[in-house]
Design a protein that fits this description.
The protein is of the alpha+beta class and 196 residues long. It is 31% helix and 18% strand. A hairpin with a 5-residue loop joins β7 and β8.
Length: 196
């Protein structure tokens, strides 16, 4: 079973590495951003739907997609369940991805403006040193950033390319948007997430 998971994780990493685009392609045009619903990779658990939540005594229901444990870039343990009941914007990025770098200012601004949304960066496809350098360079250190070198959180939330956002409502329903997302598009998704 572990060899199947290892093979699936390696296949996911290869797909993620190829997904950032190739040199010479226009990655910043308005047609580059697309919105889709969350789907799962073959052999992985399907993303959570509101019906797949389990209520905890005295707390919000925890969607299956939030049942994970990861490590933050500053070495702390992070439990996905801590986000249950909150609107969440997951930002999936890689340190070498030009799309991710281009949208970092919009993410930083939105995180400061929408303080009722939990912003979580999920980094992969490189070393932690490169991830830390990206966070410093972009000034996004106020966000929680997860080190997901093995792609476990990416797989859990059905993400197969960077840059991708997964917007999760408090009820566990999700919407996925491929980037880059500029400030206006990100605001639009966040307003939808908050029902504004």
């Amino acid at each position: 079973m572990s060899s199947v998971r290892t093979t699936a994780a390696m296949a996911m990493l290869v797909l993620l590495a190829a997904a950032c685009g190739t040199a010479g392609q226009d990655e910043t045009g308005p047609s580059a951003a697309t919105v889709t619903t969350v789907t799962s990779a073959p052999g992985s658990s399907p993303p959570a739907s509101p019906a797949e939540t389990t209520p905890a005594a005295g707390t919000a229901a925890v969607p299956a997609a939030l049942r994970f444990s990861a490590r933050t870039l500053d070495g702390q343990t992070f439990q996905g369940e801590s986000l249950a009941g909150k609107p969440i914007a997951f930002w999936f990025w890689a340190p070498w991805c030009p799309k991710c770098l281009s949208e970092a200012p919009a993410v930083k601004t939105a995180a400061a403006q929408y303080d009722d949304v939990a912003f979580v960066g999920v980094a992969s496809l490189d070393t932690e040193a490169a991830m830390e350098e990206f966070v410093q360079r972009t000034g996004t250190g106020d966000l929680v950033h997860l080190s997901d070198a093995k792609g476990a959180v990416w797989t859990k939330l059905g993400v197969s390319e960077q840059s991708t956002f997964v917007f999760m409502k408090p009820d566990g329903s999700t919407q996925k948007a491929s980037g880059p997302l500029g400030r206006d598009k990100l605001d639009e998704h966040l307003r939808t997430l908050l029902g504004r």
